[in-house]
Amino acid sequence: MSVVDRHVHINGFSTLPESIRRAIEETLLNKGVAAKTVEDDVLRVPRLVSTEQGDINMAAILGRITGFVADKKLKWKKDVKQNYPNVLDVGDILARARAFAEFIEKKKEEIVSVLVQYETHEVAEDEISRTLDLLCSLDENSDYFQREVGPVSTFLPSN
């Protein structure tokens, strides 16, 4: 579910459980709201509907029906269990980190010569120093290397 151009879009409407589809259809009928299905099985509903009693926020109503919350994340049901079957080999991770640190130290001058094309020499040296510090002290966090958790997003500075 998303809000696009003053409309609520419910993606994959036909694939929702029948009880949820029925609840949405009944709500739209009761509120006198006209909805239409647009391309790729998306139900499109006006976000705000004006009535004699005032404006109705359809995004909030449909969000409660579908299980979405205000911050646009799905509610986690307590019975959902996270399954992380792939156990990590901490020894292998630490060995690869040490090997990579050794590689960086061995090729440091060449790496710096490339980095100074984009940043100052001091910044390049600092970045390499911090990277080596991280790789060489990775064992301090080895208690947290238990299982593979799947994709992870990281937001880094763009400079």
Shape: elongated
Order of helices and strands: EEHEEEEHHHH
Strand content: 15-25%
Biggest beta sheet summary: 4 strands, antiparallel
Through-space gap between termini: 34 Å
Overall residue-averaged pLDDT value: 83
Quaternary status: single chain
Molecular structure report:
The chain is an alpha+beta fold and 159 residues long. It has two domains: 2-66, no CATH class; 90-144. Helices cover 40% and strands 15% of the residues. The chain contains five helices and six strands. The strands form two sheets. The protein has a four-stranded antiparallel beta sheet with strand order 1-2-4-3, with helices on one face. A hairpin with a 3-residue loop joins strand 3 and strand 4. The protein is elongated. The model is unreliable at 72-80 (pLDDT under 50).
Question: What's the short story on this structure?
Answer:
With 159 residues, this protein is an alpha+beta fold. The chain is 40% helix and 15% strand. The protein has 2 domains: 2-66, no CATH class; 90-144.
Quickly list its features.
single chain; 159 residues; alpha+beta; 4-stranded antiparallel beta sheet; two-stranded antiparallel ribbon; 40% helix
Helices and strands in order:
Blueprint: E1 2-4, E2 7-11, H1 18-31, E3 36-38, E4 42-46, E5 48-51, E6 54-57, H2 58-66, H3 90-106, H4 108-115, H5 121-136
Antiparallel strand pairs: 1-2, 2-4, 3-4, 5-6
Helix pairs in contact: 1-2, 3-5
